[in-house]
């Protein structure tokens, strides 16, 4: 067992050294605030696709979907199908419009239609939602490393956090893109190896079908309501994720940006089926374990070299996901709060120093909360759900800019935050998922503001016509 653990640690250490070298080698491109947040050049579609794929198949989704597969069967894959649909629709509906704004933050785009109040509210909502997802990322990474390396999960989580924060502060956005390309490839290979091992140990898929309850193979086993909620949260999160926007605006043209989205969509769907089936295999092989350990325990039983590949893939995607989240949050803090209000004639060096410090702070906050997290997929889902609110506002901004009012937009965002989080904390009473509030609150607020606007115009016209 000691030799196995030593081999896994050694391979993982070598991989992280390689990733650190990549990040360090491009540090000169992060010597300005623009270079740190945008990478300093246009990137090929396949690189941007790898960036987005690595984040959305990160450890929280992998561990969380396997956990859900352990509990409810292969229908857990709908979580990833929703993300696949989100990228497909992003390429069809929004890529061109995002790029034509020549802006790289969602909040700045919304400000053009709804004003500064909405910009600040959207920025804070995005930062909060990204940090919620980061909690799930840290927790899942700690679960994997803790189980495989046989150390306390809390200690493993802290190690994960420190290494991830180091990556992003050294190389900036370009470092995130290059390292995530490598991470995505290793992650996909690792997940296929894990499924091959799981099916072999389980006696094959046909044997699983006879050994486990039929509900584990029901495509709608988690419930239609849950699937629909995943669609809302998944599609909404893709439409309004800050680092996704930063990625698609750095491709050479609209065609390249769309192609990046289609690449991710095509790869996301089979990934979901694979991870959900791994959870099903674990339910057969290790029925007495906690569901959160469905994937980590499987890895702990794999041959050392294969396990090493899975571990570095999971950890690499984890670091990439955290890096993308923290740099996105840092970019928003820089563009929306520091530069408009505090820069005041200071040079770019001050902006660069601010974003480096902010990424460290933003990385540490969810790390503390991750030490107490258990329901990984549920936590990640809340972060995605909140972004559905911004997806509604983006769609209205691009396709119906005259619908509603700036006050309605601000009210919708605030109302969404309050109702969505409150309902989530209450445990989603009556089986109604909190994501419905994230979608419904802005729609309701904008509809009411539109009705009031029409009524006000009617009164004004009546006053003018009155003799």
From TrEMBL:
Regions crossing the membrane: 6-26, 46-64, 76-96, 117-139, 154-173, 185-207, 227-249, 261-286, 306-334, 354-373, 379-401, 408-428
N-terminal signal peptide: none
Pfam families in the cross-refs: SSF
Membrane-topology descriptor: Multi-pass membrane protein
Subcellular location: Membrane
CDD domains hit by this protein: SLC5sbd
Stated name of the protein: Cation/acetate symporter ActP
Organism: Caballeronia choica
């Amino acid at each position: 067992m000691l030799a196995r653990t030593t081999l896994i640690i050694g391979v993982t250490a070598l991989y992280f050294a390689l990733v650190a070298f990549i990040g360090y080698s491009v540090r000169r491109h992060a010597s300005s605030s623009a270079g740190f947040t945008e990478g300093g050049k246009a990137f090929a579609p396949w690189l941007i696709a790898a960036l987005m794929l690595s984040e959305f198949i990160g450890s929280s989704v992998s561990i969380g979907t396997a956990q859900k597969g352990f509990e409810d069967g292969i229908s857990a894959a709908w979580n990833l199908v929703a993300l696949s649909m989100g990228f497909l629709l992003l390429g069809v509906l929004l890529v061109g419009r995002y790029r034509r704004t020549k802006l790289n933050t969602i909040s700045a785009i919304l400000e053009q239609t709804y004003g500064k109040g909405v910009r600040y509210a959207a920025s804070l909502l995005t930062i909060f939602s990204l940090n919620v997802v980061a909690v799930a990322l840290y927790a899942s990474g700690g679960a994997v490393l803790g189980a495989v390396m046989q150390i306390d999960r809390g200690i493993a989580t802290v190690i994960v956090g420190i290494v991830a924060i180091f990556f992003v502060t050294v190389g900036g956005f370009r470092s995130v893109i290059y390292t995530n390309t490598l991470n995505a490839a290793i992650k996909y290979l690792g997940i296929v190896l894990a499924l091959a091992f799981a099916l072999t140990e389980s006696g094959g898929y046909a044997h699983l079908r006879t050994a486990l309850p039929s509900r584990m193979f029901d495509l709608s086993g988690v419930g239609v309501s849950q699937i629909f909620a995943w669609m809302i949260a998944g599609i909404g999160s893709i439409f309004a994720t800050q680092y996704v926007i930063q990625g698609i605006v750095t491709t050479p043209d609209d065609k390249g940006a769309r192609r990046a989205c289609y690449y991710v969509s095509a790869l996301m769907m089979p990934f979901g089926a694979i991870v959900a089936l791994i959870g099903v295999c674990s339910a057969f092989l290790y029925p007495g374990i906690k569901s959160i350990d469905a994937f980590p325990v499987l890895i702990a039983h794999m041959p050392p070299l294969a396990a090493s590949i899975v571990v570095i893939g999971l950890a690499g995607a984890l670091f990439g996901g955290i890096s993308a989240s923290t740099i996105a949050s840092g970019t928003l803090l820089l563009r929306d709060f520091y530069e408009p209000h505090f820069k005041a004639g200071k040079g770019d060096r001050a902006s660069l120093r601010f974003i480096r410090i902010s990424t460290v702070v933003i990385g540490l906050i969810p790390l503390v909360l991750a030490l107490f997290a258990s329901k990984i997929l549920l936590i990640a889902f809340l972060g995605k759900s909140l972004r559905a609110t911004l997806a509604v506002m983006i769609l209205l901004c691009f396709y119906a800019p005259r619908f509603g009012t700036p006050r309605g937009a601000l009210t919708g965002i605030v109302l969404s935050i309050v109702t969505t989080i409150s309902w989530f904390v209450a445990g989603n009473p009556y089986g109604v998922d909190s994501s419905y509030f994230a979608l419904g609150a802005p729609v309701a607020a904008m509809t009411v503001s539109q009705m009031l606007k029409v009524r006000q115009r009617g009164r004004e016209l009546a006053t003018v016509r009155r003799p």
